[in-house]
Specification:
The protein has about 375 residues and is mainly alpha-helical. The chain has one domain (about 5-360). It is built from 15 helices and no strands.
Amino acid sequence: MKTADSERILGLDMLRAIAILMVLGRHIYAPPADLQVVPAILIRTWFEIGWAGVDLFFVLSGFLVSGLLFKEHALTGSINIKRFLIRRGFKIYPAFYALLLISIGYYRSRGETVPLMHILTESFFLQNYTRGVWWHTWSLAVEEHYYFLLAFTVYLSLAHARNKAEPFAALPKILLAIGAGCLTLRIVTAWLLPFHESTHLFPTHLRIDSLMAGTFVAYAMHLAPQHFQRLKQRRRLLLAVMALASGALLAIPLQIPIMYTLGYSVLYMGSGALLIFAPWEGWSVRMRQMLEPLAFIGRHSYSIYLWHVPAKGWLVPALQNHFQWPLSYGECVGTYLFLSVGIGVAMSYAIETPFLKLRERLVPSRQRR
């Protein structure tokens, strides 16, 4: 697919913005009983469907990260797994460990002790299986596990490919097997255990197929471009129906078994369809200008995700206590959203941006070299 990078980034950033706004809605303040009917319904709906923003993030991450590997192989004839993991580390670790260190300092300043086991769990990305410092970072653990599994899978594909001209030929079968395996494990878990987010929503072995769905789309785009373009051009109605159908599925409460078993699979297929369906090129200058605020949020979505829970838990109460503000419900929601985005963007510029620049100096992309 021949598109300019800027156009492709705009499309991805729009989807990232949608994902992070959904997540912000998932953690919004519950509306009071006396709130007018229409706003209450909108906020409750935002809350009820907001959890699926993480699923969209998963598909986007799988698409983008695996696409980098496929492009590297196409341009250089090989893939440097070590370099890939180091570059991922520069993207993920600085902002994440800054959150962890600041969190430890914050709690200690209040005389609260953070258990060492919680710190270790968070530090080694195991917080989606046992308690860490923060609960919302479970999705980062899933993504971190995915990076290593993807690297291992790609390494085996290159090392043991029978046809060196098509070293990734077996990858679609592997991805389908992972999808079937995760779905089976979800069904078994639903059969054996009562629903709880920590056991049915967070574990990597139940959720990593969403990231692999993004890898599947990237495989089609980079390694089967003719089929990808044919699907994109001739099956737009089908793709739109799949995306809308998966969105309609969110009307089912998360606690219903069909939702946390087959529902996850339908959601990532819908997100994949949305990813293919999304316009990558043809953005006019005026349209770009109109969408820039939303794309701006998408570009900083990682840090916004990291800091939106501390913004709600630390800063909103601190402002109320310091200024003695009797905030109304609408003011609480507005302050939460403003601080989540503001702090996230500030931390993105303060931490993410310098480390990404350092990454380009120390371990530049092989494609650019």
